[in-house]
Amino acid sequence: MDSLIIKEGFPLLSFLIFFPLAGAVVLLFFNGEKFARYWTLAITLITAAFSISLITGFDTTTAKFQFAEVHNWIPQLNIHYILGVDGISILMVLLSTLIMPLCILASWRYIKTRVSQFMFSMLIMEVSMIGLFTSLDFVLFWVFWEFMLIPMYLLIAVWGGPRKDYASIKFFIYTLAGSVFLLVAIIALYMKTGTFFIPDMMWHHYSMTFQILVFLAFFLAFAIKVPMFPFHTWLPAAHVEAPTAGSVILASVLLKMGAYGMLRFCLPITPQATFLLAPYILGLSIAGIIYGGFTALAQHDMKKLVAYSSVGHMGFVTLGIFVLNIRSVEGAIIQMLNHGVTTGALFLCVGMIYERTHSRELRAATGIGRYMPWYVTFLTFFALSSFGFPGTNSFIGEFLILAGTFQANKFLALAAIPGAVLAAAYMLRMLQKIVWGGTNNPDQSYLKKHDLGIREIATLAPLLLFVFWIGLDPQPFLDLMHHSVVNLINQLNFIQQQAPHVASAFMR
Amino acid sequence: MADLLFTHSYLILLFPLLSFVTISLRPVQLSPKMAGRFAIGCQGLSMLYGLAVAAAYWQTVIGQPQLYPARSLVCFDLAWLNFSPTLTANMGIFLDPISVMMIVVISIISFLVNIYSVGYMKDDPGFARFFALMALFSFSMLGLVISSNILQMFVFWELVGMSSYALIGFWYQKPSAVAASKKAFVVTRFADTFFLIGIIVVSFYTQSFDFQTLNSPETAALLDHTFMLGIVPINLLTLATILIFTGGWGKSAMFPLHIWLPDAMEGPTPVSSIIHSATMVVAGVFLTARMFPLFAASEVTLAVVQFVGAFTALFAAIIAITQKDIKRILAFSTLSQLGYMLFSLGVAKMVTGIHPGAEINPLGYSAAMYHVFTHAFFKCMLFLGAGAIIHAVHSNDIMDMGGLRRLMPKTYWSLLTACLAIGGIFPFSGFWSKDAILLAALQSGHYIVCAVGLATGGLTAFYIFRFFFLTFHGRARSKFHDVRENSWMTFSIMALTIPTVTAGMLEHLFVSEVTVPGLAYTPNFSHPLWLPTLASLAGIAGISLAWTFYGRGRTEAAERCRLRIAPVYQVIYNKFYIDEVYLFITHKIIFHGIAAPIKWLDRHIVDGAMNLIGEFLQQGGKAVRLLQNGQLQLYLGVTTLGFIALLFLGR
Predict the structure, then answer these.
(1) CA dihedral A16, A19, A24, A28 (to 10 degrees)
(2) Closest-CA residue of chain B to A431
(3) Is the Cβ pair A389, B595 closer than 8 Å?
(4) What is the pTM of this model?
(5) Chain A 283-342, residues with CB within 8 Å of chain B CB atoms
(6) How many CB atoms lie within 10 A of CB A183?
(7) What is the pLDDT of residues A303-323, one digit of tens each?
């Protein structure tokens, strides 16, 4: 075990998990709305600040799990409390911790009822997100994976829109159905290996049938979470009904859990099955890209539009992951980050309109550009980023993915291209309506005095910073993940060379 | 001194960027008037610096061929993206004859158009925003031409598209303007995705984005192999170069991707002027020239470039004859002139080591660049003049004009030079550049293309003088109020007459210095005198015809002629109904035929199937629940039945 991890003195990861939890517990005893808001903001900001020290202490020259902590939990079953981050998960942890304060800011006015309970759910959410990305014990991972459903369910079911019951149940049942398979796979792996320590489960020569079964179980759980076509239908419903902060967390972090699961489990634990089944998943990814694009083009509800654009963007991510080369996987991870930043920001933008016009219909939001110049400036940049405009973050991600895909299979790269054109089409359609509209705009002049306030600018500005930071200087981000990705792909190729008969002709 | 200028050559870009950032983000409150002055100042500084760099380049690089045999200079190159240890994308500044020429053209035209805009945009509520976007536009275009590698060029390429989107839709209250801006962006972006694939293809095989590497004979040799796409053999070099060219195809609005350009005139006229002359549309021609050594290695690609160019030249000229909107006439004339530039590039030949034995004749390359140069000035002036006219008479329809000669004398005389230049009349600039193009086509043996060029020259002279006579001559066909020439506007228009009249003197410079990288033009081909004579005759014939039809502002003869060929005229006037075809494809097929049904499918089939599973489980649960009803009789009965069944089955 020690060859795979690097331990540090201060239990930073545990701190990141338990600090918000402690903050949440305090909220149980105080009910003041104002207090709840400031308290939660402070807690999330402190967590974010501490998470930044992950980067300074992170060694980018190794693929090992760092900041590791090992404690016994249930020794009889060989279950441990093991945490650690590598180049892939560190970015996800940072994304979670950095997006949280923004979500709190976005809910400042939006949430008017049961404020302290809302903030409690948000903090619990943060606990489970950080826990999930840092767990190295499969049972621990599964606990966080399931645990996360509860606050999200509450966010939708209590603070959601008119059809919140339908959406929250659908979300819950859908994801739970996937998780059941995940649990079966975990137990099956435990039976084979006798351990729950994730790095120990990797790179074993399990039999092909076993690998395929485990892979399919993993895949179903993660594909629902991503969500991949055709398992995506819970997403628009959940997004539409969720409050802004819920949508942001859902888009920015929760969807990443599926992609993260694929990278962390499917590839290293069942490599041969991955090689065998990758072509089908690539097919689904391409279908998702095109399908998401077309569906987004036909939407009249802004949240649905952004939700379907997520289906397309996450299609790019899964495409990058299952193309299985260094460039494409790095692109996929960057794209996960990008999607978190950009789509999160777009949901924040939609929420800001909703707070003002009380409608998510595109028609009701037409022509507000004249009265809210600050707002549309932000919106424009995020929309540009969403369709991969050069100089913004998504361009880097999409370019790396497409370049990697081209390297692996030329037709696939060509097949993904219409997605890029469609993205430009639906984003411009939305942008044009919101910023300019037509001749028969509804009267929006009452918005003149309601352009973005300082709080809202503070919510969007950090995301805009990342849009351009990743877009103009992606190197630091790529450096963070580089060794972990190289290690992953090298191991995969090594396995494939050992068992060449599995190598599909598709993956040239 | 020169070194210092080169080291800081990024300043050419920085001034417009500074202007954009300052005016749009407003760290200090600028009144609209001050914003305009500030923008002009920044453009002026950028222009001065650009000219200084050009002079230094002339002295240092061109003046010392022994030190700079390739006539190019990389001012700086910073690593931007590390894809792998061997593949890095940089951000740099690359100076060679064509980029320096473009810097001069873009910075001068931007500066003059900015001055003009002070008059044109006066009293517009978006005055400051206009100048900010114009600055962004010149920044992007300057960045595009100085790019040292193709990925950097793509970044600026898209920025050019973006700023033109914002400028075409500048008057966002007008639905037509908004539709036009979206059309321009989506059409060009559609083409750009192919460009992006092309970039990925070449960078994948060559492990480089750098223009100098991509244009080397080694790259061409590396790419030049054939693979089978199903049963169709495809040459990779041809595929990659055509993919890259498609980007230019869209940006330079060549048939059938030309549909966005005539609509782009919905933007304010200074925008049209700069789009049609120095920025945006010449980007496609510039890309072709920049990648020319690679393109030239594939005969198919050059043939495509040549055919697309020649066809669009003629096609657009025919449409231009029938148009009534002053800016539309000029827009189609731009299409036609861009066609000239592209077919000129297409007829140039150079040996790259792959197809030895082909005749070397790089004249087409120089001629195309020369035409970019001359065309930029006279087309810019034509648009500025048209803008001044529209500003004065508040109409775009040439049928509403007439008799403006006396009311706008300065514009009249200036535009006369521009019309003579575009009509190819000696000794105005257009004559020389068109002559070089026709000569290049003739020398390389492309007689049909040369004939198309000659014919188009005649048509050009006709439609441009149709516009000229109908606007300025004869009597006014509608009432004008308070027609005056604005001094900001006339200054720019008159300043542009200088290059329009004198650029003919530069022919020798272009032919000898602006050549295919590493290949000097050797004038060992004959230059028959009959060619310029014929071209001039065609031009004069066009003008005479225009005078017979429309001279002194009459339209009766033309009207009779129009009625005689009414059905054909109708087709041409409606631009061969290509816009309608596109509208049908995008709106009817893509939006209503694909997107909407998929939305329905998603809701009812995909989600429906998932719900069905849930429903199935629920119903199953209900069915099973019936068994658990707590009635002992039922349990006993079932148990007995089971027992009996077991007895029989067990046997």
Answers:
(1) 160
(2) B182
(3) no
(4) 0.85
(5) 291, 294-295, 297-299, 326-327
(6) 16
(7) 889 999 999 999 999 999 999
